[in-house]
Amino acid sequence: MGRKKGRPVNGWLIIDKPLHIGSTDVVNKMRRLFNARKVGHAGTLDPLASGILPIAFGQATRTIPYIMEATKRYQFTLEFGASRTTDDKEGEVLETSDHRPDDAAIRAVLPRFTGEIMQIPPIYSALKLGGARAYELARKGEVPEMQPRPARIDSVTLTERSDADHAVFNVQSGKGVYMRALARDIARACGTVGHIASLRREKCGPFDVSNAITLDKLLQNSEKASTLDGFLLPLATALDDIPALAVTEGEAQALKWGQTLPALHISAEIEADLLRAEFQGDVIGLCRVSEGRLRPVRIFDLTNDGVDDVDYS
């Protein structure tokens, strides 16, 4: 089998995604722009949503699950008065209502949407139902039966009312929370209907606007793919929340071979916690302490594009 086309690029690129382009389209643009072998993204943003879209190259794609699990922060505008097929302004109107809740009524229902809740995803979502994406079924005129799913919302706050038709919210949430569904359900809880008029992701795990670059700026620096590498963040950036453990050269090699090590020098309080093993500041991989041994979970090899790293989990 021949090698994949492109360069073995490793690292994270944080895009401040504009409106009217999908996450997959951004990934494809970055693949071509960087001439990279392996590219993925952490957390879909719809074309009508803007904000932080982390793009992973090479070995960094192996850390995508840790970003997907991380806390996100959003701001969205809920427009009262009409529910829509897509739960945003792109869809067709399903139902209308003249009722407009006041600020007190809105704030009164928000505790229902905080903590561990059950949420019914929008029918226009990428969830698979019987092998097909929900949005594919919806576009064929079918009505997918969406089942409630667990969702974690840390906080949802009403921050602005420009007029009676609109309300702006700040949300901090965990993995898999649909902001369109949240906006829809807040309106319903207030005795009316509504949809998202605008949505922006302001933070995704350790990444926010301070790390981000626009597509326009990247394109201005696109004369040569390798010159773009300066915009990449190290793979380890995605693992900042995981405690670091310095290992020796011999220990690093043993972990790469899948061997366990005595954990005598590791504090008992972190037994079974995930650790970021590092040698001379470079991430070797992720390990876990179990039964007095340091055991490799996922080992990274930054000498290639991520195809040959090892997962021991």
Structural description of this entry:
Responsible for synthesis of pseudouridine from uracil-55 in the psi GC loop of transfer RNAs. About 20% of the residues lie in helices and about 35% in strands. It is α+β, with helices and mostly antiparallel strands and about 325 residues long. The protein folds into three domains: about 10-70 and about 205-235, Pseudouridine synthase; about 70-205, Pseudouridine synthase; about 240-310, Roll (Archaeosine Trna-guanine Transglycosylase, Chain: A, domain 4). β5 and β6 (about 95) form a beta hairpin. Residues about 305-310 have low confidence and may be disordered.
What order do the helices and strands follow? EHEEHEEEHEEEHEEHEEHEHEEEEE
Write down the oligomeric state: single chain
Return the CATH architecture of the largest domain: 2-Layer Sandwich
Number of strands: 19
